[in-house]
Specification:
Blueprint lengths: L2 H19 L2 E6 L2 E6 L10 H16 L4 E6 L28 H10 L2
Helix pairs in contact: 2-3
Length: 113
Amino acid sequence: MHFSQLNRTFATELQTLTEMEKLINLSINDRIARITMQDAEHFNCLSEGMCAELIEAIDEAYAAECVGIIIDAECKRGVWSAGHNIHELPTDGSDPLAYEVPMEQLLRKFLFR
């Protein structure tokens, strides 16, 4: 196999792997953003990673001057989202929704934008 062909194959495989690892998918059509949570295996729980990707997608939608944002999900057993990932809750008694926590940042995106 020629080096350039090998390099293209590697790039395609890397892109496929990156897409598989993403927790959300964003598509924008006619200034409507559709954000699809795609972590059905974990019931689309709002983990730090999920919240970070949702924030990024919302920012992209605002930057594209979208007039609407639809959030949907790939579901497992009828669960759209299980909510906050309880495995990421602090065990030291500190505030689980402190200002800098990704879940709190996500909530602020919806409430104060």
